[in-house]
Amino acid sequence: MIDISSSPVVAKELPPRGDCLMLVGADQGVSAFLIRGPALWCAAPKPSVVCTNSDCKIPSCLEKKRISELCMINNRNPNHCTKAPARGRTILSIFLNGVVCISGQLHSIEEAFRQQGYITDQATLTALNLVTALNKPLLIEGPAGVGKTELAKVLAKSLNTRLIRLQCYEGLDASSALYEWNYAKQMLHIRLTENSGASLEEKETEIFSKPFLLTRPILDALTDENSSPVLLIDEVDRADEEFEAFLLEALAESQITIPELGTIQAKYPPYVILTSNRTRELSDALRRRCLYQWVSYPDAEKESAILHARVPEINDKLTEQIVNMMQLVRKMPLSKIPGIAESLDWAFALMALNQSELDKDAVLQTLGCFIKDQEDWQTVEKEINQGNLLSMAKV
Fold this sequence. Notes:
elongated, 16 strands, disordered N terminus
């Protein structure tokens, strides 16, 4: 460990084995880096600790990334780079115990998610870091209501970038997901230029150019001129199998081919998150192009933490009762098992009704917050009236 809180680090003070060097604990400061080869570093105003691979057991992590060719920091100013990396100034994307470097700053992605009120586990944090490190899409599967869609939203906020969402549905085609031509504008332009004297080939080239192109979510994400957005392809399992074929080129190469224009390559490849509720099996071709993460229902401890994070005014007793009820309800033979989204809806509803704790009447009156099926309603209502469910939930 090298303490640089009092004075800036100079190259000769850095250890010779500094394949990777990361600044740990800087308060909204700039990261310090040492990559194999020349020392590339930038000290924050009040950084705390620099950690090398020999201390933190970081592998030889950036040889394949050739970071020395991506960004050279001049005059200890991260805003002046002789060469900008593909993702702006995201110099490092190494996962190490939940630590990730984003836009020249070292952040704990777990802390960033906590600030947004999103509680997740270490495996999911690892998968998110690998999305940026490997530039591969992430397929997240799991039951409905466990926070798959919200994960992409919070990731976009944590990265301070745009979220572009494509909501999938049966019958979704390329014209709705990728692009289509503005036929009305093309027809109008043809009429207005009838007597322009231009050849037929010239007119055709003009009307099949970018000004006449309507970008849809996927093309919009691939043509961002400022930074890498988060592209959320939500509930991809609801789309037809044919739709997956449209995705393969975009997911594998961060590009799209338009016959009239050629291949459009992303300047800033998007961070792609796909979600699926497993209503149908996805193709092997799509799965091979993605990292994979399964998100299940939270355990009691995690659900309690989520409630406190998203509903900070809730008291401990009500939180415990809600968590106990939801854990028990999920073990019942229901057709639509409530997820964490329903737990949050229920908590917000109880707070709006000024309920500081649960009782039988309060549960029955708010049953619709987490039960969304008639047969499930009857099943749960019967258990409540018999008192079994309430006693086990300590209500």
